[in-house]
Write the structure tokens for this entry.
Amino acid sequence: MTPSGTINRIALLFAMDAEGTPIAEALTLGDPEPLHAASPARVRRGMVGDVDVVHCIHGTDPTHGVDRIGTEAAALTSWLMLEHVQPDLLVNAGTCGGFEARGGAIGDVIVAQSAVLYHDHRVPLEGFAQHSEGRFVPLEAAAVARLLGAASGPISSGSSIDVTHDELAFFTREGVLAKDMEAAAIASVCQDLGVPVMHVKAVTDLVDHPEPAHEVFLRNLASTTEVLCNRMVQLVRWIGEGRTLDDFAN
Ligand code: ADE
């Protein structure tokens, strides 16, 4: 009998080509293949040490020719991928906005801990309000945060790269360290399907800084995805040495 928490197969999920492709190449995974006939998502596979790695990128929007970022593609792709692959763990990795007020800087890496939230779902009705905020629980991963030299704390997802005053107040109230556009949707699917999930995010821009986030994002995308690639390769190789989920926490 295999001990509980054994990791034989992991799934890696990325929204953007720039976030995922360098990692697939560094790990020398196989060529991209379609995840499903009706989805632009692409999957690459390979063994890294003892672990079977399935790497997936959301793919390109066929109408606009850009990466299918956002919660809708994240929910659909993660559901398809988890059904297809049945991993022991999903790691969602990508870029995010950080927060200067909580010590964040460009190039920092953040591992989601304690809560994965939605910041732009405002429904002030009993029950629906709580449902709308998500508040999903990521895998306990203090040891991984230490390994990667990452900060750890709540992260929050929404459908825009810019921010409103209400959202800034929400981030302060919740102590959010990373703002992205996919994590909560992926966490919701993982909760439904009972798959442990981690989110590893690297900071391209600072949400509480006056410069427009989309401009800073573009300027720092290459340097930040290089940091993300290094940390993800380190994490996957560490898992491939034969870890259990318990090793992530302690
Ligand atoms: N990804 C990178 N920067 C972001 C931001 N400011 N908001 C949402 N997603 C992001």
About this structure: Residues 9-244 form a domain with the Rossmann fold fold (CATH 3.40.50.1580). The pocket of adenine is lined by residues 95-97, 161, 179-181, 204-205, 207, 213, 217 (CB under 6 Å). The helical segments are 17-26, 71-85, 128-133, 142-148, 165-174, 183-193, 213-240, 245-249.
